[in-house]
Design goal:
- By secondary structure, this protein is α/β, with parallel strands linked by helices.
- 43% of the residues lie in helices and 24% in strands.
- The chain is built from eleven helices and 13 strands.
- The strands form three sheets. Strands 10-9-8-13-11-12 form a six-stranded mixed sheet, with helices on both faces. A four-stranded parallel sheet has the order 2-1-6-7, with helices on both faces. Strands 4-3-5 form a three-stranded antiparallel sheet, with helices on one face.
- A hairpin with a 2-residue loop joins β3 and β4.
Length: 286
């Protein structure tokens, strides 16, 4: 038998894409207005960001090892192995929950394999990595070969983004209070990326939104490998028209034709806030 590819909803890939490409997206949980929701599109992203703009606050919870076991066991029982591409271990305990489930399940199902890859990625950086994994699978790459490919290449998946308000990242523990304070005091639009360890890092300051978006595009020029031949992802936190403008500029500057735009879902959005914009591509390094 073959193997099943899984990821989590921190990849910001829509559930419809999972059905289209025959893989599984495990929804994480977020809480807003004292109600728990699965991050599966049951609340639209636009509705979610309208609530945040209206003063609501949301929190998130990682996937537990028991939940992984519940989801993975029927697949293993059916004779398939599993490759799970996990949200960065530097940002969540979900990867470690997956590893606990792996040990339990491989003991329970001798001969079956559960390979858990720490993507060191977030949002559609994780999603873009999954896209390559699916292409590898469809081209006939084995479970072990695909896992090894992820380990070898994940450091080349570039994440460049800008946020409107650093306090969302601070409250979620994703950046330090000092980083948030400096950014807020200077009244700048921060330019950030996800580093080789999968941490969110402030790497630049831009005066105004237009300059911050240009900084993202300039990162493509510095780092991207043959950008005209790549699939690139853009994610946005309810600023779709700007995302379309950025896509048009990428096509103009670099000749890239396969550019896909998706919402940042509520789990990632809980930590970034409205109007965040991110670009994801393959580069010489992060």
């Amino acid at each position: 038998m073959g193997y099943r590819v899984f990821t989590d909803s921190c990849s910001d890939l829509p559930q419809s894409y999972g059905k289209e490409r025959h893989f599984d997206i495990i929804p994480m949980i977020y809480r807003i207005d004292d109600t728990d929701y699965l991050d599966d599109g049951s609340m639209s992203s636009h509705e979610y960001y309208e609530k945040i703009r209206g003063g609501s606050w949301s929190t998130t919870a990682q996937i537990t090892s028991a939940r992984f076991e519940e989801i993975f066991a029927p697949v293993l029982e059916g004779g398939e192995d599993i490759l799970y591409i996990a949200f960065s271990s530097a940002l969540s305990g979900t990867y470690h929950s997956g590893m606990v489930a792996k040990e339990e399940l491989e003991a329970k199902f001798p001969g079956r394999k559960v390979l858990v890859a720490d993507s060191k990625c977030a949002s559609m950086g994780e999603g873009l990595l999954v896209e390559y994994v699916l292409n590898n699978r469809d081209a006939g790459m084995s479970l072990k070969e695909n896992f090894d490919w992820v380990e070898k290449n994940k450091g080349r998946f570039c994440h460049w983004f800008t946020v409107d308000d650093l306090n969302h990242l601070k409250r979620g523990g994703r950046i330090s209070a000092a980083t948030a304070l400096v950014g807020t005091m200077l009244s700048i639009k921060p330019v950030m990326h996800t580093d080789n360890e999968g941490r969110l890092t402030l790497v630049g300051k831009a005066r105004g939104r237009k300059a911050s978006l240009k900084a993202l595009l300039d990162a493509i020029e510095r780092l991207a490998i043959e950008p005209e031949k790549q699939t690139m992802f853009i994610c946005h936190a309810d600023c779709e028209e700007e995302a379309k403008q950025v896509a048009a500029e990428i096509q103009r500057r670099f000749g890239t034709t396969d550019i896909r735009i998706h919402y940042i879902g509520p789990v990632i959005g809980s930590h970034t806030g409205p109007n965040t914009m991110g670009l994801f591509f393959v580069g010489t390094e992060r």
